[in-house]
Write a structure and sequence with these properties.
GO terms for molecular function: methenyltetrahydrofolate cyclohydrolase activity; methylenetetrahydrofolate dehydrogenase (NADP+) activity. It catalyses: (6R)-5,10-methylene-5,6,7,8-tetrahydrofolate + NADP(+) = (6R)-5,10-methenyltetrahydrofolate + NADPH; (6R)-5,10-methenyltetrahydrofolate + H2O = (6R)-10-formyltetrahydrofolate + H(+). Homodimer. There is one protein chain. By secondary structure, the chain is α/β, with parallel strands linked by helices. The chain contains 9 helices and 11 strands. It folds into 2 domains: 86 residues, Leucine Dehydrogenase, chain A, domain 1 (Rossmann fold); 131 residues, Rossmann fold (3-Layer(aba) Sandwich). Helices cover 39% and strands 17% of the residues. Helix 1 packs parallel to helix 9, helix 2 packs across helix 9 and helix 6 crosses helix 9.
Length: 291
């Protein structure tokens, strides 16, 4: 029987622990606060930001919300970032992406105070991750790859010496998870695959673990994996369900793979809840470092 790696259950346990740590901080007069900057009214972004603030309420973190219209200028957005940098009620914050067309997202991310970078995606923090192959890291870590590693650790899946095939080279996880997997404490061997990879199926069939983050629904099929592989599904695609008459979220891993795998993350309900939990963890850790 394959093991279902339940992200909802593990994330709930993490949030319980974070709530206790927030209570201890409050007893010392320190109130953690998560800020969000939302530009425009994209339904997906609005829902995602609302979920983050619901999580904050659950663990006792203050919500600091900033919203701008879709026609906000680069200078308007930059001013809002500076305000969050300077706001003492905001321990850490995120700029919800994507930003409206024509706005230089990297330039905006560069303006975030690295010490308040709740997503762990500021160039300074990514640079610290590159440099620290060994030992502890005292800067925020990227939420999604951190969530994946925490999830596998919770299920006692040892990655030492394992072959990990990462599908997709996006900055959210594809380009960053390799940095974390190859740290001395994890010690995995990583192959990063993308649209230029030759004989992609051969790489996948050799892998002990596949991290699928392509955004291509059902791309990973049973013929492309070996028996007993661990499957981590990070892909998100909106696929129209004709029978139900509506769109559904589907991952990169075909469900037909589950019987062949030793363990897998469902999608939804796997990595997604862990990403949100790691965002909260980053904020609490920032407050603890400040304390």
């Amino acid at each position: 029987m394959s093991t279902i790696i339940d992200g909802k259950r593990i994330a709930a346990g993490i949030k319980t622990d974070l709530a206790e740590r927030v209570s201890r901080l409050k007893a010392r007069g320190i109130q953690p606060g998560l800020g969000t900057l939302l530009v425009g009214s994209d339904p997906g972004s609005m829902k995602y930001v609302a979920g983050k603030h619901a999580d904050c309420q659950e663990v006792g973190i203050t919500s600091v919300k900033k919203e701008l219209p879709a026609d906000a200028s680069f200078d308007d957005i930059a001013a809002a970032v500076r305000e969050l940098n300077e706001d003492p009620a905001c321990t850490g914050f995120i700029v919800q992406l994507p930003l409206p067309k024509g706005i230089n997202e990297n330039a905006i991310i560069d303006m975030i105070d690295p010490a308040k970078d709740a997503d762990g995606m500021h160039p300074y923090n990514l640079g610290e991750l590159v440099l620290h192959v060994r030992g502890d890291i005292s800067t925020p870590l990227p939420c999604t790859p951190r969530g994946v590693l925490e999830l596998l650790h919770a299920y006692d899946i040892d990655l030492n010496g394992k072959e990990v095939c990462v599908l997709g080279r996006g900055i959210t996880i594809g380009r960053t998870i390799g940095l974390m997997l190859t740290r001395n404490a994890v010690n995995a061997t990583v192959t990063l695959c993308h649209t230029g990879t030759r004989d992609l199926s051969a790489h996948m069939r050799r892998a002990d673990v596949i991290v699928a983050a392509m955004g291509s629904a059902g791309f990973v099929t049973p013929d492309k994996i070996k028996d007993g592989a661990v499957l981590v599904d990070v892909g998100v695609s909106r696929v129209y369900d004709e029978e139900a008459g509506r769109y559904r979220i589907k991952g990169d891993v075909d469900k037909a793979c589950y019987d062949k795998a030793s363990a897998y993350t469902p999608n939804p309900g796997g990595v997604g809840p862990m990403t949100r939990a790691m965002l909260l963890a980053n904020v609490v850790e920032m407050a603890e470092r400040h304390a």
